[in-house]
Amino acid sequence: MRQQDWISLGACALLGLLGAGCGAPAAVDGATGPAPELDTQRAGAAVKVSKAVGKKVYVHLMPWFETRATSGNGGWGIHWTMANQNPDVVDGSGRRQIASYYYPLIGPYGSGDRDVIEYQLLLMKYAGVDGVLIDWPGTINAFDYPKNRANSEAVIAQTAAVGLDFAVVYEDHNATLAYNGGFITDKLGAARNDMAYLRDRYFNQPNYIRQDNAPLLLVFGPQTFQSPGEWTNVFSPLSQKPTFLTLWYESGEAGGNAKGEFAWIYPDFTAGLTHFYNNQPSPLKFGSVYPGFRSFYAAGGWGGPTWEIAHNGLNSFNQTLDLAKNAASINHFQINTWNDYGEGTMIEPTREFGYGFLTSLQQKLGVPYSQSELELINTLYQQRKQYAGDGNKQAQLNQAAAALSALDVTQARNILNGGGGGGTGVSITNGGFESGMTGWTTWTPNNTSGAAFSETYNGGHNSANHLTHWSGSPFETWTYQAVSGLASGSYKVRAWVRKGGGFDMARLQVKACVSCTFAFTELGTYGDWTQVETPAVSVTGGFLEFGFHTRALTGNTANFIHMDDVSVIKL
């Protein structure tokens, strides 16, 4: 097994190597059916995000995750379960037992879920990503390859509407697994069918990535076809060969069919990347950016690597990003990966890292957006699910999605920040506490302001952080924010709250002038996140002050309030 083989295991491949089945359907040597159709219902006039760094930035996406609702067989997909995990087991923080040390901010999902895809692609867009490179299983009807291909095409259908390009990373190793499993008898024939499929359904799409005037195609290896003659055979259905990239140091196996190589993840970390950038003479090189490596394979009962590259918070990601950004020999880099939870290489928002990897991208690429827009995309996703059966609300959310695709953040915010009760959202600072206490002030009459702080304990409502009021000693704190320049009218303040223990006072409160009396809502006890809101107040002078006022006259470590996702709504 060559150094990269361990990481090429596509959907169900590990089970194939272990001799287990995936409930595979009957085998065929090719595939037919319509090309992926663009998702026009949510499409708007997509606008590309500008950035200071001119290099092309792509992200490697795994399309292999399934929930009970999306799998088609009522079970959880193997990439959430591996051999021994059960996502139906849920702990006190709402975390399901999944085959990963890291947890998606939106929870385990199905890769073909339309709302999930919209959320993922919009996050990529606002982080400065130019396109998505989809780990593509081919057309063989074996294991869960057909489901993964269908998920890939669900992603492809939404890329143009969001304003992203796409290409595929071909898993040629799947042909060997299918051959060994008795699903096919002709590996080269299966690969030719794959090329014809790509030619007829993907390569001709306007937003398929083209490099050097040819469609871009990456291969994860090669691992099955390891001679130039085999690749000439594989590409024989194509009138124009693709711009074909192999894994680093493997282009010789494709000979003149290969136009370059792409870097990946390896235990020597930045040393290997630096050597590849500075010394490998490949004419076209794609860099590799990744956050670390910590596989769940051993814990999940699968075979695979046990070495680790520590994440060190965001440091490893920033190191590989700076290397790729500054390397003179590359003009393209691939982020590895968007969502490989089994290997701990995901950059999409998680409970552990919040939006950190994406905000690092924004800052280092010179993107004119911040975490605020990423949180707004999360709000869109949450409302998609909250109002799943409401056609009128979904039509409004389609407008919000189109506005985000067109970079009209103000319009999207106005639509989304009304929540479930109508109204227009008002921009406030750090309503989700992902930037710590930035934008918020804490007052105390008794020097106990330390009882108010931002943290990640038990996870936030829609993101990693939340505000906490807690102390083992008596305390009183008032954490607040003020906004000005508001149009006259009626306003409410909404927030999500989780609370336990007993308080002498616990309020979400608001007032419309410095000398005004607060309007407030008493906070009850909530075992899970619950949305609360203040009474409406009339604003005539453009000013609004709002926040959380709590008091505990006796020390009790059971007294806590978690507060998150604060919003101000003009009615």
TrEMBL record:
Residues 1-26 form the signal peptide. Keywords: Signal. It comes from Corallococcus praedator. This is Endo-alpha-mannosidase. It comes from the Bacteria.
